[in-house]
Structures are given as C-alpha cells and as structure tokens.
Specification:
heterodimer, A: 182 residues, alpha/beta, Rossmann fold, 5-stranded parallel beta sheet, elongated, B: 231 residues, alpha+beta, Ubiquitin-like (UB roll), Alpha-Beta Plaits, 2 domains, 5-stranded mixed beta sheet, 3-stranded antiparallel beta sheet, 6 helices
C-alpha cells in the first residue's frame, strides 16, 4: 500500500503553525516513514502532482489568492484540516474585521504615523497583487473543512496525535493540555 | 440547628440547607456546575444560562433555583453538556475573542469553558462586531470586544458609598457595560485589581500590567475549570 499523501499551506498566517509541525522534533523521522509530502512549503513543491489524502491549512482568507489556494486544496485533498486560530477564526489578521478596508489601506499607506516615504500617496494597485477581501474569513466559511485543531500555535503533540489518528484510524486521545486557544 | 434537606445530582446523594441555590449546594457537595454571570457574593440573575440543569424534565438555571427536598437534578448528561457547549460557542462568535492576543488568556473563564467542553470550532458564524476600547480612565482598560455583559463588575465593584463604577448603557444589540468617568478617576489600585479578577473574560484590564503570569503557570493551563470544587 502506498503511503498517505499530505499537503500543507499557509494562507493569512505567520507560519507559526508550520513551525509547530516541525516542533514534533525527532518524530519527523517517523512522519516521513508514515507519509509522503506533496504541495507544501516543507518540501517546496509548488503545485499538486497527485491526489492528496490530508490537506493542512494554516491561516484564514484575507485576499483573493488565499481563496483560490484554499479552493484548490479542497479540490485536491480528501480531508482538510484547519490548523490554528487564524484558519479557524481569522486570528490576528481578523482584528481588521469591522473596520472598512479603505480605512485599513489608508492607515497602512497614507495616514499611519510611520508612513513617511509615500509622498505621492500611492496605493498598491498592480494587477499582479491579489485583491483584499472585505474582511478576513475563517476557512470553513469558504470551503468545507473536516477537522479543526485549535491553538496559537496548536501544540506539536496535538498535530502529531491528529495525524497518527487519521493515518492509523485509531481514536484520538485529547488530553486537557493539548487543546488551547493561545 | 438549621434544616438540612436531601437531593440528588446525577444520581449522587447530596445534602444542603433548604433554600440554598443549586449551584452553591452542588459546590458544597463537591460537584461543579459551570457559571459565568454568577459568582459567590453576588445576587444571581440567571442570564448567561451556562449553569442550566434539568429538573423534572424542565431546563432551569441552577444559580437562581433553590434546592428542594427530594429534588433530582440532571447536570452532567451529554445533552446538557452539549447545550452548555453551544452557549460557550455563541459567546465566542458574538464578541471578538482573540485569545492569542488577550492578556486574560489562561485565566479566562469563558476560554476555560471552551477547553472543558473541547470547543474546536464554534458551530455558528462569526459576527466580528465593530466595538471599541475605552482606555480613558487612569487605572483600567475596558475592552468592549471581549465583554459578555455578565454584569459581575456592575454588581460587585462599588465605592465605599455603594455606588457602582460600572453601568449598562444602550439597549438590545447596542448594550454595553461602561465605566463611570467621574468615579473611575477615584478608583484605587485594589479596586482595579478586583475588577479585573471579577471579570470572567478579558474585558477589564489593569493598566500597565498585561501578561504578568507566564504560560504554563496560569490558572487554567493544567487544570480544567472547576477542579477546585470537584471531589
């Protein structure tokens, strides 16, 4: 039997959740025995090259590119996991929710106290740039998400236990100390 | 000799003085029933519903219902736990509860209930209301994003003349707990500390004192909420 295939991505996140994946320490050697990585920053594969069993999403959706990547993950992955607070509820990027986008952009590029070099008051307008969404969306408000692992970042033990449970089919242990929202 | 009566919680024999509210009677018998708007020393009002139990087939708030002789109370059944979990989830989506950036994280009762009921994601859509932060008073910060309007500060934080430092303003969806500007100017350090302690979430913060306890040593880092009550 071939190994289960895993893909990961970071949308509007800080890569802290990916750091926490690496935080499984020497179990990473077991992990590469158990699974094969496809599209992921871990191995730098940029596009899906085969159907994936488990897709892990870090970060919520703050722009059009995030939405596109998330939808391609839903299309290519059998199981999708929201990893961390940003994927689950928008997290710190969602602090801008409730404030109009125009105000946010003005603060960042024109009116903010540390903005000094933008004398011509240019706003980012290149066609190549993804469009900002009206607010930051939790992943499950864009596509169907199968599992949620909270934490900022989620504890390495939680990620490890979840992956092992998914791969082996055994029920997951959820000790008190692994479910945290910070 | 006062009158002790017998009752049952989830089948366990309990005893308490007649007239004791169920939450308190349960506590005296080493049984934890979660509370948020209720706290010892404050008149209960049964508004948050997290202490809901089933008595005679009816759901009631146990902070406002006194025990009666022979009463059979259902508190820890799966459907009641599920109901309480849904209440916690409603509170999370109706405010802006960014746990990673909150000074009260690890000591927050709402968060601790999320841990207790293993809330992985709320079943309701996030509201992301646009609410403000009032940092105008000398001692404390009032963050409306995190307020669950439990009224604990209004009822428990008063000056020596019995005047509340906090009050409700507006109605319905615009309701908020605000600080009395004039009174707040006279607030002592001790009162500010007490206000922060009595707030079940991170809505009342003492200024210049965030993140005082390191991760791993906070109240709910290792022990679930209610561990001090359960026998």
């Amino acid at each position: 039997m071939s190994k289960p295939v895993i893909a990961t991505t970071s949308l509007a996140g800080c890569f802290g959740c990916h750091m926490s994946i690496l935080d499984i320490d020497e179990r990473i050697l077991q992990l590469i025995e158990l699974v094969e990585f496809n599209k992921s920053p871990v191995d730098d594969i940029k596009t899906f090259t085969k159907p994936v069993d488990i897709g892990i999403i870090e970060g919520g959706c703050c722009n059009s590119e995030n939405v596109e990547v998330l939808k391609s993950f839903r299309k290519n992955c059998r199981i999708l996991i929201s990893l961390g607070e940003c994927a689950i509820m928008g997290g710190l990027p969602a602090l801008r929710n409730g404030i109009p986008v125009e105000e946010c952009i003005h603060e960042a590029y024109i009116g903010g106290p540390t903005v000094q070099l933008n004398k011509d008051h240019i706003l980012p307008n290149d066609d190549e740039l993804p469009m900002l969404l009206d607010k930051v969306y939790p992943c499950h408000e864009i596509v169907k998400i199968d599992y949620f692992l909270p934490g900022c970042p989620p504890r390495a033990d939680l990620i490890w236990d979840a992956l092992v449970a998914l791969i082996t089919g055994d029920p997951m242990k959820l000790p008190y100390e692994v479910i945290k929202f910070d | 000799m006062s009158s002790l009566i017998k009752f049952k919680i989830d089948g366990a024999e309990c005893m308490a003085e007649a007239g004791t509210f169920i939450v308190e009677a349960a506590r005296q018998n080493g049984i934890y029933i979660p509370t948020l708007c209720n706290m010892p020393g404050v008149k209960p009002k049964g508004s948050c519903r997290i202490c809901t139990v089933r008595i005679n087939g009816r759901l009631m708030t146990s902070c406002t219902t006194p025990v009666a002789d022979g009463m059979e109370i259902e508190s820890n059944s799966n459907d009641i736990k599920e109901l309480r979990k849904s209440i916690v989830e409603l509170m999370f989506v109706s405010g802006n509860h960014f746990c990673p950036a909150c000074e009260k994280s690890g000591n927050c009762e709402l968060q601790a209930l999320g841990y207790l009921y293993q809330m992985m994601v709320p079943r309701y859509p996030y509201d992301f209301p646009n609410r403000g932060v009032d940092a105008s008073s000398p001692k404390i910060i009032k963050d409306q994003n995190r307020c669950i309007q439990c009224k604990r500060c209004i009822k428990s934080i008063k000056d020596e003349q019995g005047r509340s430092y906090f009050a409700f303003r507006n109605r319905g969806n615009h309701l908020e707990v605000v600080l009395d500007e004039e009174l707040a100017a006279t607030m002592t350090d001790e009162t500010a500390e007490l206000a922060m302690k009595n707030c079940p979430v991170g809505s009342i913060l003492v200024k210049e004192k965030g993140f005082a306890t390191p991760i791993g040593k906070r109240k709910f880092d290792h022990q679930p909420i209610g561990s001090d009550i359960r026998v």
